[in-house]
Structure formats: C-alpha cells, structure tokens
Amino acid sequence: MRGRLDHIGILVDDLEAAIPVYQALTGGAAPVIRAVPELKLRLAFFVQQGGAIIELVESRGKSELRHGDVVVALEVDDLDAEIARLAAAGIKVHDQPPTENLPLRRGWITKANGHGTIIELCPKGAVERFVRDT
Predict the structure, then answer these.
(1) pTM value?
(2) Which domains are seen in the chain, by residue range?
(3) Which of 31, 100, 113, 120 could join 44 in a cystine, given CB atoms 3.0 to 4.6 angstroms apart?
(4) Closest CA to 103 of 79, 74, 130
C-alpha cells in the first residue's frame, strides 16, 4: 500500500445545504456533482483546494453511514494485492464492484472493522479520473 490519502468522504443529510459551507471552506470553486442512483447516492467532489479531494455523500439507501461520518479513502497500487494482504492480517475487506454510474472497483473496511472509521481502498488515480471525466 502506498499509504497516501486519496480523498475523504463526509456523509451529509442534505447535499444542497452542505455544498455552500464546503465551497466557502475550499476557496469557492463549485464542486463536481455525480449521481449514483443504483446505490441511492449523490456525491459532490471538491477538487480545487490544492490537497486531497473532499467528497460530500448524500445517501438515501440502506447503509451503516450516518450524518457526520467520515470515510478515509486510501490510494493503493494494486487493489487485489492489498485486499489479500489485509485478509492475511485478519482484516475483513469488502470488495465493491463497479456500477453503471460509479465505475470504480473499491475495497471497504466497515466501521466495526475500522475501529469506528470507514476505510475505502481506491486504485491509484481512479477517483480523480472519475471526478474529472465529465
């Protein structure tokens, strides 16, 4: 694993209400908005602040995520190898397949296995390509 922060995701109840706050905090640039209806998600990505991407997540589906939860997304060079390495260390990682509107395969460590934090494993560069691909 590279150990590099890829992005952070913050769960919000109301994406429209949260966007102006994060827009002001990140320098005023408008976020990139993505809808993922098959997962009942709406996403807002702030990419212009000069650091890791900040993602706001509005979820209308069944999930362990709650308002205010933070997802720490780490970039990995090889997702399969990282999932295998973590499994060998006794850490349960869920393999999330791509969907029609979120064409990224990712790994997930739940709050229970991440000691209260949700951890997402993202292939190197995949999230940034997804956000910038309009």
Answers:
(1) 0.89
(2) 4-132 (3.10.180.10)
(3) 31
(4) 130
